Amino acid sequence: MNILSVQGQGALYTVLVLIIVIIVVHGIKLARIGYRSLGKKLPPEPPPKEKNEPEPVYFLVERKKKRVRSEYSEPKRINFK
What we know:
There is one protein chain. This protein is an all-alpha fold. Helix content is 41%, strand content 0%. It is built from one helix and no strands. The chain has one helix at residues 6-38.
C-alpha cells in the first residue's frame, strides 16, 4: 500500500538524491583539503618574547561647546505654490 502518490514519491526521491549528492561533494572537497595539507609542515613556533608592561594611554577629550547666539533673525516666510 502506497502512502504517497507517484508525484510525492518522485519528490521524496529527488530530495534524498540531492542530499546524498551534497554530502558526497562536500566530503570529496574536505578530503582534497586534508590530502593537500598532509605534505605541509607547520612553521616552528617562535620563542616567547619578554612581556613589557604597556604604557598607559591617556585620552584628552574636550567637550563640545554650544555656540551662544545672542540675537535671532526675523523668521523667514515660506510660500507654498
